[in-house]
Amino acid sequence: MVTVxxxxxxxxxxxxxxxxxxxxxxxxxxxxxxxxPEVSDKFIIAHIGxxxxxxxxxxxxxxLAALFSESEDFRQHSxxxxxxKTDISVKKSLKNHQLEPWTETITYVPHQEALRHAATAxxxxxxxxxxxxxxxxxRENYLNxxxxxxxxxxxxxxxxxxxPS
Length: 165
Description:
alpha/beta
């Protein structure tokens, strides 16, 4: 059995997997050789990847809607960018919260183009799926390997807290 993190490997072992190997997520340095953070005249909040129903966090849309509604400066200088497959529930939430005027939705793009979008973001938004091992997966795989210097905003509304490895 092969997995991407020690936490998940331990859980698989408890379920009876006799031999588990961990191959951590990572990145190929060559993917980033021509990718450099770019300064934009806008504050760009970006999500790169699938924005599925489990990542459609109403509290985030409520907060963004309040910021756009209450602050002329935020309206003028901020944008939301969703790059990747966006679930219909997310699109409905954006419409219900009147965020569409400030939102750019881009469907699937090749890997290099996705990295360029990430490099232009002021803030990378990472809503976590409500799954048992999501926190361990995030800790073990993402924050420790991201080579760009963007800020991360991780929104976690899961109810369980995994025990330390």
